[in-house]
Amino acid sequence: MDLFDARLKEKSHAPLADRMRPRVLDDIVGQEHLLGPGKVLRSLIEKDALQSIILWGPPGTGKTTISSVIAGVTGARFVQISAVNTGLAEARKIIKEAEDLLKLSRRKTILFIDEIHRFNKAQQDAFLPAVESGIVILIGATTENPSFEVNSALLSRSRVFVLNPHTEESLKRIVAKALADTERGLGKENIVFGDEEMDILVNASNGDARSLLNILDIAAQLADQDAIACHPREGGDPENSKGRTITRAILEEAAQQKFLRYDTKGEEHYNVISAFIKSMRNSDQNAALYWLARMIEVGEDPLFIARRMVIFASEDVGLADPQAIQLATSVFQAVHAVGMPEGRIPLGHAAAYLAKAPKNNSAYMGIEAALKDAKEFGNLSVPLHLRNAVTKLMKGLGYGKGYQYAHNYQEAKTDMECLPDELKERKYV
Description:
Zinc Finger, Delta Prime, domain 3; 21 helices; Rossmann fold; alpha/beta; 4 domains; single chain
């Protein structure tokens, strides 16, 4: 085995995401609204005044990291369990150990429960006495709305902190730290890649810092193999053995997926949403579902898609199917409530329904024409017979005179003119 083969055997270390886990508050990237200087959570941690809390946020936003840093800063014992594989017996054992430790050494125990929403009510209730008495400082982590998933008794004894999804900028900072860190990261590996590859990596992570570093870790190993293959002993170019370049192909292999070309701020964003809307307008439900899938696959904001369908239901389906606007609005609310990935189901439901629905844009064209007249003619006077005579003076001036109450007529319709004189007989719909 030569030196270059040996390098491939040195990959038994911990995953990059674990090695790069922040140790102190200043190492944490993102969540500045909670952990920035003078912010509430940081102040509580630094003053060792933290009580039980719930951290609510998407995967990979730092819930576990924040908890372990809290334990390090406060010097408390840190116990981590997952609601997926922990039963009541184990939970009670941990609470008993925390109670004994507190009595013997006055040392606190921070109990971090990952996915706390997966505990049922009875399991959550088991922690109440320990939380109330201060035996443990409970930190629950959840990706679900705690208002629905954490029972009210436990929730009322905890403070909820909402973690924001990572931004593109914060994810790029995490990558830069990993590439520069010579102790725990890839700083000694001479890894290079371009701006396009950085964008691909960030897009592939879907806002999850853990996923981001896992993909980078695998890509670095694949690039390592490419660099070895370039060594002169393997018949390659010795110049290429000096560094390792992560290419688009390597990133696709690392993430086990093909990356669709789609920039949520660029031209392709507008191209795809345009194709989606025009496919529904053309009553092509198959194309509509395909373009919808394209947007979902690359992480388009699902509420943006849902809003466009609410508009489409009124603009394009319109009077042909008055139920369409109700369905689209309900889908928007459903996606907002359940989130992704389950939100793809009501989104697909609405896209198929709206594509197959009959179309009539007369209401949309009518309001456009009316707006044009409103701008062109300015403040035309309201006809006297339509005005409300709330005082004697108004009545004396003819307000309300000649008004015909529609319900007194057959089919609740009269021949009374309701448009200003300048727009008589105008037809908008």
